[in-house]
Amino acid sequence: MTKYSTEKEFMVAEGTEGEVYVYIKARSDHPASPSILYDGFDHAVFLRSPQEKIILDYINPLIRDKLRKANNVVIVETILENIKDCYMASMQIVDKIPVDWGQIGLKTWEEVALQA
Fold first, then answer.
1. Which of 27, 23, 50 has the alpha carbon at shortest distance from 37?
2. Once rounded to an integer, what is the mean pLDDT over residues 51-75?
3. Could you tell me which residues are beta bridge partners of residue 74?
4. What is the pTM of this model?
5. Rounded average pLDDT over 74-82
6. Count of alpha carbons within 13 Å of 51, Cβ hemisphere only?
7. Cα–Cα distance between 16 and 20 in angstroms, integer?
8. Distance from C-alpha of 67 to C-alpha of 82, rounded to nearest angstrom
9. 112 sits in which H/E element
10. Per-residue b/e over 81-97, b at no fewer than 16 CB within 10 Å?
């Protein structure tokens, strides 16, 4: 059974041509058919491979629309300040991601902002 891990320190950036980049910590193995499952709300699931599901935790409301409109994103895996790997991941926009975020211990962006 595939388990979820949570990527808490990721960054989303937009390039000069409107392309979307997602920066994450590098993994030791190579991705297989990477894609991102996103419903336009607080969290996305990065399917790095059939066995590896990474939750992109708390998508900033200011970039949600850019992710919803993207067909592909560029995943940049980094070690400290260095790029280890860079590849395309397709975007799969869905009505609702079939994950109970509360069972994983995640809250909404708004709930986290209120605690700050």
1. 50
2. 92
3. 21, 88
4. 0.84
5. 94
6. 3
7. 10
8. 24
9. helix 109-115
10. eeeeeeeebebeeeeeb
The sign one gets for the Cα dihedral 92, 35, 74, 104 is positive
- Rounded to the nearest 5°, which phi and psi values hold at 74? -95, 120
Two structure tokens written together for 86:
């860079």
**Six-digit token pair at 110?**
């708004």
How many CA atoms lie less than 13 Å away from 47 in the CB half-sphere?
13
**Helix/strand/coil (H, E, C) string of 37-104?**
EECCCCCEEEEEECCEEEEECCCCCCCHHHHHHCCEEEEEEEECCEEEEEEEEEEEECCCCCCCHHHH
Token duo for residue 102: 């509360």
Long-range pairs for 8-14: beta carbons < 8 A, 24 or more residues apart = 8/57, 10/56, 10/57, 12/59, 12/60, 12/63, 12/66, 12/67, 14/63, 14/66
**Percentage of the chain with pLDDT > 70?**
85
Q: Distance from CA of residue 31 to its chain's centroid?
A: 14
Task: Return d(Cα 69, Cα 3) in angstroms, integer.
Answer: 28
